[in-house]
Amino acid sequence: MGQRFDNISTWLNTYECTRSTTEWICEGLEIEDYVVQSHPDVSPAKWHLGHTTWFFEQFILVKFLKNYKCFNEQLHLIFNSYYKSMGNHWIQGDRGQLSRPTVSEIKHYRQYVNASINELLTGYLDEKARMEILSLLELGINHEQQHQELLLMDIKYNFAVNPFNVSYLTENYPSSYPCSASYLSVKGGLYQIGQSGIDRFCYDNETPRHKVHIDSFQIRNSLVTNGEYLEFIKDNGYNCPDYWYSDAWALIQSQCWQAPLYWFEKEGHWFYKTLYGEQAVDLNEPVSHISFYEAAAFAKWAKKRLPTEFEWEVASQELALSVSNNFMEKRKFAPVLSQIDFTNDNHLISLHGGLWEWMQSSYHAYPGYVAPEGALGEYNSKFMNGPMVLRGGCYATPEQHYRSTYRNFFNADKRWMFSGIRLCKDNT
Amino acid sequence: MGQRFDNISTWLNTYECTRSTTEWICEGLEIEDYVVQSHPDVSPAKWHLGHTTWFFEQFILVKFLKNYKCFNEQLHLIFNSYYKSMGNHWIQGDRGQLSRPTVSEIKHYRQYVNASINELLTGYLDEKARMEILSLLELGINHEQQHQELLLMDIKYNFAVNPFNVSYLTENYPSSYPCSASYLSVKGGLYQIGQSGIDRFCYDNETPRHKVHIDSFQIRNSLVTNGEYLEFIKDNGYNCPDYWYSDAWALIQSQCWQAPLYWFEKEGHWFYKTLYGEQAVDLNEPVSHISFYEAAAFAKWAKKRLPTEFEWEVASQELALSVSNNFMEKRKFAPVLSQIDFTNDNHLISLHGGLWEWMQSSYHAYPGYVAPEGALGEYNSKFMNGPMVLRGGCYATPEQHYRSTYRNFFNADKRWMFSGIRLCKDNT
Amino acid sequence: MGQRFDNISTWLNTYECTRSTTEWICEGLEIEDYVVQSHPDVSPAKWHLGHTTWFFEQFILVKFLKNYKCFNEQLHLIFNSYYKSMGNHWIQGDRGQLSRPTVSEIKHYRQYVNASINELLTGYLDEKARMEILSLLELGINHEQQHQELLLMDIKYNFAVNPFNVSYLTENYPSSYPCSASYLSVKGGLYQIGQSGIDRFCYDNETPRHKVHIDSFQIRNSLVTNGEYLEFIKDNGYNCPDYWYSDAWALIQSQCWQAPLYWFEKEGHWFYKTLYGEQAVDLNEPVSHISFYEAAAFAKWAKKRLPTEFEWEVASQELALSVSNNFMEKRKFAPVLSQIDFTNDNHLISLHGGLWEWMQSSYHAYPGYVAPEGALGEYNSKFMNGPMVLRGGCYATPEQHYRSTYRNFFNADKRWMFSGIRLCKDNT
Amino acid sequence: MGQRFDNISTWLNTYECTRSTTEWICEGLEIEDYVVQSHPDVSPAKWHLGHTTWFFEQFILVKFLKNYKCFNEQLHLIFNSYYKSMGNHWIQGDRGQLSRPTVSEIKHYRQYVNASINELLTGYLDEKARMEILSLLELGINHEQQHQELLLMDIKYNFAVNPFNVSYLTENYPSSYPCSASYLSVKGGLYQIGQSGIDRFCYDNETPRHKVHIDSFQIRNSLVTNGEYLEFIKDNGYNCPDYWYSDAWALIQSQCWQAPLYWFEKEGHWFYKTLYGEQAVDLNEPVSHISFYEAAAFAKWAKKRLPTEFEWEVASQELALSVSNNFMEKRKFAPVLSQIDFTNDNHLISLHGGLWEWMQSSYHAYPGYVAPEGALGEYNSKFMNGPMVLRGGCYATPEQHYRSTYRNFFNADKRWMFSGIRLCKDNT
């Protein structure tokens, strides 16, 4: 571990880059857009700006920068997300109740913390402190990258709730090319899953590297499209209990779900809310904003199934000859299928940079997993009681954030993340 | 009816005054403060700015100004509060989900409508149109005055929720003089209640004028103070079911109420959130922000009772030799007892300009009441199924809005309005 | 007060009669029918049997019968309904969770208390004790009579929930005669309302007798029929917000109400669940099982209004030349209109013995009302915060329980009681 | 497959045995005890009697017995539990609202179906029909055995809610011997998990047999005792967020959990409700009625972990030299530790016949799993979206129902089943 921590100035640069990227995401927002929280799961944009800053302040500056004075002690209550061992925190669903601190105050907070990080990193640090600080800085950077994606998820939701057709982006909506579907074979056997966590960054939940046996199976090259999903809808998929888990059926009945999130029908045609405003549904585009329940129902209807996270990890390493390049920094904020994806028949298309893919796996600790000591142990481990795993990455994921071992997770009913469906099937 | 509608320019002046007063109330707010809705009963400040404007647009301009083009057709959905006959409207509790229209757009909306009202009123109007328009304008002005008070209620609530000690006002908190309590007699008999609604403005719910018999009774000159209410708290008032209605007891148990809204205890001392930030509770000041349930429980504990709205109206006309002058425009935003109140022993102190007083009366139509035709019939009549009546007015009520026949009403559990307690008792 | 308390043996007889009537009501029930609680407002039949017994035990025997030993101390928790000053009590909505005590144990409890009451009343009692005991016995008898009606309400509800067509009665459903509607005039003036509470029994809430001024008005001779109510339904009454209070509209939208309780449509025809099983709706019969909200909406649709409780009390005394005789003991458990009602044009039909009539009055204390000391003060007074008043009586009210001053009350949304609509209108 | 289906008369005998065992469980109940449903998860005893009967009727008689006439067509609505493809069914949480059918009617229903099964099995059946019928009969018998355990779970819950100290059993509570804890090693490697489903009965969810790799680990011989769990409680385990999953912490905070279900403190001592009435907590006895959340929190506090279902299955086959014999038919309805368990150091104690053991595994389909066609596909597969797995069996599980491959499952927050904790740890 640690060669990657030799060069401090590179890290300072990455830090500054990441920080300014977050602000770049918010550039087009009005002050009012920073404040609202239109669903308890969604956070106000200004909260993301503050929370990511608080993370660096509390986990690095408070501990390592001599004589560091917190920007404002009271912000701790507001910007602590869920770290119980860090003290009380504001209720997540009530973040939208707070007009203060203002956006301007939070921007000052960001600058103050940035300056202090700069001071810390440009000052004298012994080997041990440097390693420890840069390791935490790396975590903080990855943490902020996660929130960049969350910011885009939440901005999309807040804008979509608004009855006005508000657009985050003013460019033309990117259209998708059609893509034929084929199934690629993966051999069964004993595989290594996860990472050691030593040579390069990964979250604790990707460790330890361990053996998993999988049977041979076939995985689809491409994601399920809106066009295919529409067939499911037209075939009465949302009204036939056969395709749904028991919990899922209760949910869609009580919530009257009849289509993915953001879809609406107008005069017999389907539209969806996008970051580019309202658009006619593009049938070539991979279907997005579906819950695990919908992904699983679709798979059952299609007489296929979803992969496990182990199958997916193996397949992504065996088959992904080239990865898509539709990452966040490209600012093409739709799960668009570009032509470049089709150059090779034998690889997984849109593996990264398309949509998060729902796995038929509940999120648990890997065998031998040990949570970090202290508050950072809460980062991942306290959620390891079985939400559903998503793998891959999406068009709102920063480029450096992709990894075939990455384990994202959400509850089975959530669908405001950029999620899609990759099918697989057993060899018979 | 109608002499008061002879002079158009006076009305235009009053209109403009009222409109700018609303904006004056919002002057110190940050953009973020206009957006939040920290409770379903509370509306964002920017919503009040828009809704009051919509009222003039929909009820006057759309009907009377030739070729009038709505500022933005889509605003109708957002700024219609509850007029079912005007079409769909946004859910009240979800107003805080909307970042758009922005404050700046709403200010343009206000200017646009102001200019159009000016155009309408300075153009040619025949007698009939003038009478009709000015009558609606008068209603719209009174409507906006109601929302001025609501704005202050809602700003107070939104600020109080914030864990930072945010102040709407930076001046010193006004302190109260002590006031002795005495009971004044009112003779029984048959009295006229309400108004004809012809010579001066009143809401439809104050009409028709009709006879009510009341028995002789005694009413207290002054409102119950924080000091007296604290005695009730210390005597375990919130934990003894004897004082509480059955519904009230269920409520305070489930909500863990132990004091008025905005009160909190710190190291054995009571404080409250005010529009001037956090303050030590002033024991001389009339108690405020109590629900009907608390008012009634206090009265029972004190072996007194609350007056009916008929008793109150009679008493206010018989006994109120001079009224308090602590109206909204004075910008003394606390239920302060000034020395001037004590010049005469035989009158009701703080009758207007102190706090709304909870009545032991459910809000129903007066005998012979007829609701206005059309959407404006919804203004008052659809709430006449028994919420509790409050009488008087408060320090956030505009001066011209006071009237001894005025009937305010809220559900028995609400307490974010500026409400207080006036006791009375039977002659024995 | 008190002459009526001279003859102990008459009272003992009345007591025994009342007690055995309660059991007579339950005669046809299966054991299982005594246990269920199909709605939080509804109580299991066995609970009524126990609670009415507990009332005599706690308020009379424990205090007056020397060496009285409670049947079972633990029953206190279960059978105390809501008397906070009597200690903890089981949650009302959870009464159906208790299989024990069994029906058989409760019947033993009844016998045990009956024997003890007999012992008390046949033993020596001085004048003071006799007066006090008989006064409480009278209250207990009236209390049990109230529960006889509640028993029938609750049995009806529990049976109606059952998907099987369960009948409480096996006789033929009694059919109604048609009845023409006319309006009778009542003169305005100052009237005496309520009772002194001295010469004959009444509840505390009917006292003190006091003066109320009413304007002249007209009241309809007969109740609104199912046929008339069906016109309201067909005229889209449940889907037009104009007729409904704001709270009512929210309720019927969220609950999807489209007809009175117990009504259901089958192949284009309306049926209802009755105590005689499922029946085609009888158009001549007065409409029943409607909430205050529905009564008020119907009245608005019909361009009439509901009477106040004061108007009703005056009218019932001025105009009710003869009362209906369809009381509980007749066991004709439907709001049937018999021919005998029509002998005189100038009286109110079905005043008693038909259906409880919703008043446009919220339930409050009369002027000068003083609640009894102790737990019995909770009997009525803690509900005097504004539920809606019903007047009259119904086919499930025991004969001796009728009184023109009687004040029944329920929340505006309830409709499992035997409630109906009597209209009135202003003189113009 | 199928040799076990050669002898019809053996199957008829097993059928009759199972059916009468169900009735034997209910023998001591009062009629009232059959009716109540004191929690939405719990069903009335009479419902279990009816539903198990309905299962035989619908899945066998309706299809195979010529001219079979259903006992009562209306029962279908009531006794269909959750088979959507069988038509509408009554809401699970509302089963306690139904007084009818009565217990007596349901007993007739049982007899009627028993007679018809007898008729079917004693009549002529060709090979194919016999195989199909007996296969379904076997499933129905296993289904009824599951409900025997559910009956005991639900009776316990219904009795425990009752404030009276009601006992299902009148014998003395069986006391437990102390048992030392040791950890037994299991070797890592590739193991076969599950069954083929051909030679002997198993549920579809135990198939197909497939390979799983596990690392070597150690598993504790005995279950965690009440005494050990009490240490966790005393160490403030329920009030320290470190031990709890995020969801779990939210739950125990909102529900104020401070001990296992059925535990209560009286004068500083812990008691619990048992099927033998209230008892002092036996410290030697394995702790029971804990949720997955509590099991996981205890494990974290103890610096151990829960096994996965694969580890457990392997361990149970490698190490369980002898199984406990505390199965349901013994009628020792407590998780008692008898002396016989300690004869051998190297085996797992209480593996079967003690308590269900919570696994660190979410319930999903095994690789290659195919759900049965038709309604029986709903039996297990629609719950395979991640509830938590329990393994083993308990003192209320019928003897023939034990199997090391058996997969029980409940949501992580449930604790009215007879659940306990077996710890394991990694080799280091």
Automatic annotation (TrEMBL), chains A, B, C, D:
Residues 16-150 form the DinB-like domain. InterPro entries: CTDL_fold, DinB-like, DinB/YfiT-like, EgtB, Sulfatase_Mod_Factor_Kinase, SUMF_dom, SUMF_sf. It comes from the Bacteria. Pfam families: DinB_2, FGE-sulfatase. Keywords: Iron, Oxidoreductase. Residues 183-424 form the Sulfatase-modifying factor enzyme-like domain. Pathway: Amino-acid biosynthesis; ergothioneine biosynthesis. NCBIfam families: egtB_TIGR03440 (TIGR03440). This is Ergothioneine biosynthesis protein EgtB.
